[in-house]
Amino acid sequence: MDKQTIRVMWFVPPLLAMVAAQDRRSLVTQSIRNRSSDEQFNALVAGEVDAVVTSMDNGIGWNRRVGPQDFRVVAQVERTTPLILVARAGRSNMSALRGADILVDAPDNGFVTALRAMLDDAGIGRDEYRLVPAGGVQERLEALLARQGVATLLGPPFDAMAVKAGFVRNASVQEHYPDFPGQGIVMRTGSRARSLVGAWLEDLERARQLVQERPALARQAVVSAGLPVAAADGMIALNPQSLRPTSEGVALLIAHRRALGLAGADSDYPAIVDDSLVHEHIGEKA
Questions:
Q1: Could you tell me if 152 and 123 are in contact, meaning their C-beta atoms sit under 8 angstroms apart?
Q2: Cα gap 143→136, rounded to integer Å
Q3: Distance between CA 60 and CA 62 in Å, rounded?
């Protein structure tokens, strides 16, 4: 019997997906690398993919756009997403970003919300810097190396690549906000692929347990995918305790939007997260 295929779009392959792909019982994953969160939004609206792996804040922002407004986070695939604000040499503190062009994926949703909150906390006015859309993490690194912009948020291994090229670490999202959540799986509630996504969550849960119990096998899966051992170990360290999105992380995303006066500040956990697939397919209770 042929395996079912799930269509998923992401910036970089998440650890659990790489580990799950080694399991013969797993679904076939048709993965599509995207260059921006707008590509993810458009693909979900058009029904070209079944789910995306992305910043959970995107689900909040997308539900405020013209369109279906039925996006929900159905799982969380990492404990947190490590994000480093990388800048040109000589700009090693946030006050040095006044007047700077800062490269982002999108100006109103995603990881940019945490970035804006950090700048706000540092007392940098919203008219004292410019957010310049430059695409996903790889695209932002390429733009930074091409001397476009002054700073951007990067995750591993892209932050290390920027530092090796002469840029400096300016700030860490995790140091500012320890409860910052990892990437989530976002889908539309009206999607016909609900059962398919649920079956994929079963695959990811088996992978999560394997990472926890047999990290050496998880490391091998990552290295086999072409990533260095250091990247594998970093991913393994961020293995979540559960696929259920954390209430603390979601609350932080809402708090950031409230502090910044962004749409979605009146959201609550059920408006952002549909954890019923985790309950139905994995058996976890809230």
A1: no
A2: 10
A3: 6
CATH topology of domain 5-79+181-282: D-Maltodextrin-Binding Protein; domain 2 (3.40.190)
If pLDDT is split at 50, 70 and 90, which confidence band does 3 have?
confident
The residue ranges of every structural domain in the chain are 5-79+181-282, 84-176
What CATH number does the domain located at 84-176 have? 3.40.190.10
How far apart CA 171 and CA 71 sit, in angstroms, is: 31
- Give the pLDDT mean for 158-178: 96
Question: In the numeric block, which tokens belong to residue 266?
Answer: 């009146």
Given the DSSP bridges, would you call strands 130-133 and 101-104 parallel, antiparallel or unpaired? Answer: parallel
Is pTM beyond 0.70? Reply is yes
| pLDDT average, residue stretch 130-139 | 96
Assigned token pair, 93: 């503190």
Transcribe 29-96 into DSSP letters.
EEEEE-SSHHHHHHHHHHTS-SEEEE-HHHHHHHTTSSS---EEEEEE-SS----EEEE-TT--SGGG
SS3 content of the chain, % helix, strand, coil (to 5): 40, 15, 40
